[in-house]
């Protein structure tokens, strides 16, 4: 799957090599699964079958989709139906790009389209057939298009609580995640949610739709592997166990983004950050949600207007100091966070920590009060 996700922006030769090694059917099946996942529920009043004809070199395949109003589109099994209402055609290379490419990629002449390829025997059916085929086609084409829904809408439709609940996070997420949206990212979210028999997974489904080339991993204390599907994997781990977290990250990482939406116990937040931040790729983000628990004693927080050093907000305060270690401890070997944190952006109850190389040159370490005074004496002022 990693290789297929990256193929969307690769050269034609790389896609051809992937198809040669994996086979036309395996690649096509994976792409069709994604199309069915993205496609919206159609509203056509009568069933419609749409054919997708895919070619690769001398090989050709036909996939038939059954579109019934009010139901998810499915791949028709068995023999092809007698009546095909629409025929779409494209190369397998173009299908890869259409599914896992970027929105700004040029795709000129990448598919053929025949609307109602056969004349109906009963022309009185024609008006209804045109309407039904158009409605079904629109729903299917949503599956053949890179999704651009905003996070607020995806949050509501996926059952996540990151918007319009106790939290208003999606605006911050859209701002911070925009540079990653069209990349083949690996996302790990701590905490899958769910209770009273509900498996949860609303946020994981939201991320899968938002990051159309992303691999999404969720971490929970309980086995929620029933949620597993292409590009979405539920893992079992205790976020208070640093060794287990590191083992999980070695197996499934490194990650471009890690999101802590777990227990919100302040100790667990710090343990998870220390264990997983080393497994965030340079240029990636580590996100901490629900930092209001820094002020709740029963969650390991502190009372009063200033959160203590062992809280999640205390961690963010320390990272701001680490970001400026050149200014206060230039002669000491830097810690992991002093060396690798290049940005700390905090909003209400949520913070984003950016990883990179903290190598900007600061003021010379020998600059003392006398040096500053000398500098100031010869510095022009307005």
UniProtKB/TrEMBL annotation:
User: What are the BP-aspect GO terms?
Assistant: antibiotic biosynthetic process; methylation
SUPFAM superfamilies, sorted: S-adenosyl-L-methionine-dependent methyltransferases
In which pathway is this protein known to take part? Antibiotic biosynthesis
Keywords (A to Z) from UniProt:
Antibiotic biosynthesis, Methyltransferase, S-adenosyl-L-methionine, Transferase
Molecular-function GO terms, alphabetical: methyltransferase activity
Domain of life of the source: Bacteria
Question: Which residue range or ranges hold the Methyltransferase MycE N-terminal domain?
Answer: 2-107
Q: InterPro entries from the xrefs?
A: MycE_N, SAM-dependent_MTases_sf
Q: What is this protein called?
A: Demethylmacrocin O-methyltransferase
């Amino acid at each position: 799957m990693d290789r297929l996700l990256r193929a969307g922006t690769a050269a034609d030769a790389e896609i051809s090599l992937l198809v040669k090694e994996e086979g036309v059917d395996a690649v096509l099946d994976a792409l069709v699964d994604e199309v069915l996942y993205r496609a919206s529920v159609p509203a056509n009043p009568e069933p419609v079958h749409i054919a997708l004809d895919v070619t690769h070199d001398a090989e050709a395949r036909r996939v038939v989709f059954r579109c019934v109003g009010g139901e998810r589109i499915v791949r028709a099994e068995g023999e092809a139906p007698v009546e095909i209402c629409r025929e779409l055609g494209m190369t397998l290379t173009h299908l890869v790009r259409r599914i896992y490419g970027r929105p700004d990629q040029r795709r000129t002449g990448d598919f053929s389209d025949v609307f109602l390829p056969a004349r109906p025997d009963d022309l009185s059916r024609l008006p209804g057939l045109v309407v039904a085929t158009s409605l079904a086609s629109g729903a299917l084409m949503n599956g053949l298009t890179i999704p651009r829904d905003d996070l607020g809408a995806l949050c509501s439709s996926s059952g996540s609580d990151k918007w319009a609940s106790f939290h208003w996070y999606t605006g911050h997420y859209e701002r911070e995640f925009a540079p990653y949206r069209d990349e083949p990212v690996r996302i790990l979210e701590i905490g899958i949610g769910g209770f009273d028999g509900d498996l949860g997974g609303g946020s994981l489904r939201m991320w899968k739709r938002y990051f159309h080339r992303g691999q999404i991993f969720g971490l929970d204390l309980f086995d929620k592997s029933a949620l597993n599907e292409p590009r979405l994997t539920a893992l079992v781990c205790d976020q208070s166990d640093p060794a287990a977290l590191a083992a999980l990250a070695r197996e499934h990482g490194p990650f471009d983004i890690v999101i802590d939406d777990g227990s919100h116990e302040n100790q667990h937040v710090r343990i998870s950050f220390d264990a997983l931040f080393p497994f965030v790729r340079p240029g990636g983000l580590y996100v901490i949600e629900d930092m209001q628990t820094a002020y709740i004693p029963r969650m390991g927080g502190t009372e009063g207007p200033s959160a203590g050093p062992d809280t999640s907000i205390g961690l963010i305060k320390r990272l701001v100091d680490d970001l400026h270690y050149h200014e206060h401890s230039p002669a000491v070997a830097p810690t992991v966070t002093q060396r690798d944190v290049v940005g700390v952006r905090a909003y209400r109850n949520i913070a984003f920590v950016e990883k990179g190389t903290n190598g900007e040159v600061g003021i010379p370490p020998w600059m003392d009060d006398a040096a500053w005074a000398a500098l100031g004496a010869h510095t022009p002022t307005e």
